[in-house]
Amino acid sequence: MADTSDKQDIQGVPEKDQTVQERTASEQTAKEQAPRRRQARGERRIAQLLEAAASVFCSTGYTAASTNAIAREAGVSPGTLYQFFPNKEAIAIELGDRLMHEMRETYGEALAPVDPATPLEEAVGSAIDRFIAFNCDHPVFFALMHGPDIPGRMAEEHDALHATLLSRIEDLLSSFLPEAPPADLNRTAQMCLGIYKAGLELILGHEGAARDAYVREVKDVLIRYLEPLVGDRLGGRRTGVTVGNTP
Question: DSSP labels for 138-164?
Fold first, then answer.
């Protein structure tokens, strides 16, 4: 009777050798996947801790917050938190870095070049809606940037972002105010940004219908400020104006 212990498959490799090769390949794959799984679990844990920190910073402020409170909000032990962050400042810095990146993308989209046929109220409304949506989705950013203690280099990074935002507004204004002197463009951009920032605090301090009303007020103030400057260079003059809470 023929010995089948070394029976070969159609490729000519003995079955027992195939089994060894398959087991070796499986073990190698598992070894390669293990670090990725650990990394994925670590990223999920970091996201969980950052979300908890955002909630704590908003409710108590950065100064009064503690790692114990953040761990409790995340549903983990302080020891687990310390596996990823040495202190609350490191948590705030990581959170701030991520929000800064997202804010740059949001502001870049909001201040993209505008089609000259776009009505002024549509151009202003679209930009304000994007700005407000970011800040309403991430109130912790405002809480961190306007508290008595700003962690790490967030203040410097925020100032740099502010300068970039101001420059983008100036560029946008210059596209339909081509004859305006640079000093005038800068002053107008500063006013637009100042109006928005003043309104933002009121917007974030309210919810529901009251918040919507303040958003409309900010838009109306900006439109009324820009309309005499822009004239018919952007979407033509408006035939009607909605002020405040008037439908």
Answer: -HHHHHHHTSSS--TTHHHHHHHHHHH
DSSP state of 242: -
Distance in angstroms (rounded) separating the CA atoms of residues 81 and 87:
9
- Widest distance between CA atoms in the chain: 103
Local structure of 14: helix, strand or coil: strand
Tell me how far apart the alpha carbons of residues 53 and 71 are, in angstroms, rounded to a whole number: 8
Task: Give tens-digit pLDDT for 174-184.
Answer: 888 888 999 99
Fold for 93-230, please state it: Tetracycline Repressor; domain 2 (1.10.357)
30-82 belongs to which homologous superfamily? Homeodomain-like (1.10.10.60)
185-198 residue pLDDT tens: 999 999 999 999 99
Phi/psi at 3 (5° precision): -80, 125
